[in-house]
Amino acid sequence: MLRLVGVSKRFGARSVLRDVSLEVAAGEYVAVIGESGIGKSTLLNVVAGLEPLDGGAVYFGDERVSALGDDAATRLRREHFGFVFQAFHVLPHLSVQQNVGLPLLLRGVAAAEIESRARRLIAAVGLGGREASMPRELSGGELQRVAIARALVGDPQLVLADEPTGNLDPENARQVLALFKTQVKERGAAAILVTHSEAAAAGCDRRYRLTTAGLTAIA
Questions:
Q1: Is 192 exposed, middle or buried (0-12, 13-18, 19+ CB in 10 A)?
Q2: Are 211 and 200 in contact, with CB atoms under 8 Å apart?
């Protein structure tokens, strides 16, 4: 589903990604572990077509992501990708249901279908009955559940998760990671989790370590 071939990325004189190659198949849950500032978020950005490359290529299926224009890359992300972030990025002025349904609204999906699919995902992440709640009424763990539901509501083929438990206590982190894995696997999506935490990566199908020298598999 996803293939990175010799990907390199620099910011000025600083090399952030060096000759990174990776393949992820449908249904796989892959972790990339690395220290803060090593380039994990940059890796997700180049996968999503948000950052230009200095070398190599990124393919999603037969599509060369790294060669797409801005409009085509935006459509690809909107139709095929889901995103979960450390800081949740839940919009404070929208209810839980409105936040979860937002990706479908941006696609132009009919209101009745948005409501149905959003409610189904909200229930799946254990927040049934909280559809009308506002973000200020939720805990950090609940906000991340909203973010997971939003990432999955459009049935993405690939989900990119950037330190999704970085702002959570250990117990909430464990619950959110278990929920994330279950929901991704049930939908047959591929997922890449980037994290500094060995514990967060422990439940993944494959694990890699990102360093200044590149990406290496962890046995």
A1: buried
A2: no
Q: Which residues of 53-68 are buried (b: 16+ CB within 10 A; e: fewer)?
A: beebebbbeeeebbeb
Angle at 87 between CA 18 and CA 67, to 5 degrees: 40
Q: What is the pTM of this model?
A: 0.91
Sheet holding 63-64, edge to edge: 14-24, 2-11, 55-60, 63-64
Which CATH number does the domain housing residue 183 bear? Answer: 3.40.50.300
Tokens of 37: 């500032």
CA pair distance 215, 217, nearest whole angstrom: 7
Structure tokens, 102: 């937002």
Q: Look up residue 77 and give its two tokens.
A: 């992300």
Domain residue limits at 121: 2-218
Q: What is the pLDDT of residues 115-140, one digit of tens each?
A: 999 999 999 999 999 999 999 999 99
Q: What is the DSSP letter of 133?
A: -
